[in-house]
Amino acid sequence: MAKPASENRRAQRLLFEALQAPEKLPALPPADWELLLRVARRNRLLGRLQSDLEQANLLGQIPPRAAAHLRASHNVIAHRQTLISWEVNRLLWALKGIDVPLILLKGTGYLLAGLPPARGRIFADLDLLVPEDRLGEIEERLVERGWFKTDIDPYDDRYYRVWMHEIPPLRHRERGTEIDIHHRLLPKTSHLKSDPAPLFAAARPLADPRLRVLAPADMVLHALVHLFLEGDPDEGLRLRDLVDVHDLLCHHGQEPGFWAGLALRARELGFQRPLFYGLHHAQRLFGTPIPPEVLRGLADAAPAWPIRGLMDRLIHLALLPEHPDYPSRLAALARWLIYVRAHWLRMPPGLLARHLSRKAWLRFRGFRKRIDLAQLDLKQQ
Amino acid sequence: MIVGDLSRRELADRLAGEGLALQFGPFNLRIRSNLGSFASLAHQLYEPYPLPEPAAISDFHVDISAPRGLRRWLRRQACFGIDGQLPFAPYTIEHAFPALEWGINWCVATRAHHLLLLHSAAVERNGRAIVFPASPGDGKSTLCTALIHSGWRLLSDEFGIVRPEDGMLLPIPRLIPLKNQSIEVIRKFRPEAIIGPSFLETRKGTVAHVRPPVESIRRAQEPARPRWLVFPRWVAGAPFTLEAMPKSQAFLSVATNAFNYEVLDEIAFRLVTEMVRSCDAYSLVYSDLDDAVNALDKLSQASDG
Fold first, then answer.
1. What are the tens digits of pLDDT across the range B46-95?
2. Do B66 and B140 sit in the same domain of this protein?
3. pTM of the model
4. Which residues in chain B are contacts of A73 at CB distance < 8 A?
5. How many whole angstroms separate alpha carbon B45 and alpha carbon B48?
6. Same domain, B105 and B131
């Protein structure tokens, strides 16, 4: 086998074995640790490894240099969790007097509801789902109380407001944290229907009655929709998001009626295909315990044979971690195709062509998102 | 084994192949580059730096290379990469060396959150260290360079690295990037200082790197106990002053100066409290390096008493 291929396999094997059997990590040779740390970092799973090893009381039995990276990641995650919890506190303060249900999505929801995926997970922004007819009121109040609309160009603003499922992010003036306010799970232009009303009806309250999280089945479905339809051409399908799904399934799968309800709910919301792909790949990569009858029941949600084989291969390639020094062209192609497919499902062809050509032009113009290194004061990091 | 034990050719082969493994204080780096100009500079300026044990884990995998594809032929550029990703806009190829040096600092600042990272220079003599927390433009690098060519050991120019276990300062004696007028000031002050080529018109003006004395690099694994906190400020033509600073003010200044005080939370509070408690704090205003070096020598000798 050529070296790049064998090195990529080694990177994948190291990460999956570490996730499935952290108790074997103390026996890992230093060269393997080095690669594992790099791959886990790229896939945002360093904190997860730290948490697994801490639970098994094994942090003292791994090479000190590896332990240092894990401790650094732990410190950052603990800090981000504090920031996000505080941000939720400030949000409730800012919206005092506005009687509206606030559904916390993704990481924020896992954290505030104390769910397993929050363990060792890095948090970026605060994600909210609110009723569309209350958006104006909420945005206006937040702007009055210290948040501001981030400076985006008119195209992007229009892109958000007219076609998307969220409004442009709001950022706090002093804290710098961002709030993403959604009013549905998928863009308005999406082929998949995404009526948010049933989500609000089923949402579960948290300790503060104004805060909710999605019902268990909806939470799994949202994590999958997010995984498969909000891709990034460079990052591919985020393995971290599938780990969330695995954790949610292991956790909620214990509740009676969860599995029977999950497939039904997927059909109701029009998300049976993301569920089919998600369950299939979670089981394949993490050995998620899924009752066989659930998979059999979803067989009709699979696409016809040639497409199914192709999608299976593409999703697998786009999910698998890569060796940072040996990027694979095939995996890059898979990631790009999955990205185009996600956009295809997000918007009609004419709009898609316009949108992607604009993005391609920005990419060609070059390094748009990259920061000018010397302009950054190291202290600001 | 040190970089100087490798021939120029061996070093270039490593940079272009599996990477050159280097030890900078607490961190092991693996550096790759396909630029011949970079290999020459690395051979010269990294010469006394140690190579880690062959089986040691590398902490950061960095790369400074010409971009792939069309861009390579359009403009002669160098991209800084970490773990196969390019987080920053490309540089002109002439600035590859300062870009890599800056990129390595960026790695430390954004990733080493298992340690408290102060934005400060630090030097040591007779087992006692001075920490110089400062903002850009305060003349911390210039003062630090002057001191390490006057009998002090370099712990660090950019990062005051505090170990959470015992509050000791971990040395990271990297090259010191002098900017603009500081380069001439140091050439005059210590003509024997080893200074690399001047890089003109970088995004920070003219930059030249001072190679720390070999002794500082050789003792990079020997931590030091902080004894003084000195907040320096260079002011053109100002009379020299060294004034005691109240501990409360020193605490606030150190805490707000740290790169990751918030990230380390309670650990950081404990470390900074302990450091301020065990150090004498001063604010220093200087325009002449000799004044500053003499005053700090006296401070140290009084303590040797």
1. 999 999 998 999 999 999 998 876 555 666 889 999 998 888 889 999 99
2. no
3. 0.91
4. 113
5. 8
6. no
